[in-house]
Design goal:
Number of helices: 5
Radius of gyration: 21 Å
Oligomer: single chain
Family: Belongs to the krueppel C2H2-type zinc-finger protein family.
Shape: flat
Structural class: alpha+beta
Mean pLDDT: 78
Pfam families: zf-C2H2
Order of helices and strands: HHEEEHEEHEEH
GO molecular function: DNA-binding transcription factor activity, RNA polymerase II-specific; RNA polymerase II cis-regulatory region sequence-specific DNA binding; zinc ion binding
Protein name: C2H2-type domain-containing protein
InterPro entries: Znf_C2H2_sf, Znf_C2H2_type
Number of strands: 7
Strand order of the largest sheet: 1-2-3
């Protein structure tokens, strides 16, 4: 069974764990069972200070080809393909696949405006909103 077939099979939402399990069990020619999704590709990273070769592990996505530097980043990346969103907002129906985006979103529900523009004094709940404002304010 190919990975595309696994993804298209059923209308149910797949979890990262279940898709990795299916891919690793697969015996198809396109996804040999001896080559699991989370197997790193060896590369070399040259350190300019001592010019010694240091092995650096890379984790390729078997679905889209993106290469990530850490296994946990690959697992988080897989949520793009599975549409898994484990971080649910308690205040609204929004859910997020990434903890960082979830935490940023949580700030929008706060009454506290912690970020202030130094030029005009405008206050913002989220730092990104201030950053966007400063670009306009400085222009």
């Amino acid at each position: 069974m190919t990975l595309q077939m696994l993804l298209l099979q059923a209308n149910a939402q797949w979890s990262v764990a279940s898709i990795l399990q299916q891919v690793n069990k697969s015996s198809s020619a396109s996804l040999p069972s001896h080559n699991p999704v989370l197997q790193p590709l060896p590369t070399l990273n040259i350190n300019p200070e001592n010019a010694q070769e240091q092995p650096k592990r890379k984790f390729p996505c078997k679905i889209c080809g993106s290469v990530l530097s850490r296994q946990f980043l690959l697992q988080t990346h897989m949520r793009i393909h599975t549409n898994e969103k484990p971080f649910q907002c308690k205040h609204c129906p929004k859910a997020f696949s990434d903890r960082s985006n979830f935490r940023t979103h949580e700030q929008t529900h706060s009454d506290e405006k912690r970020f202030t523009c130094r030029k005009c004094g405008a206050k913002f709940k989220v730092k990104v909103y201030l950053t966007r404002h400063v670009k306009k304010c400085d222009a």
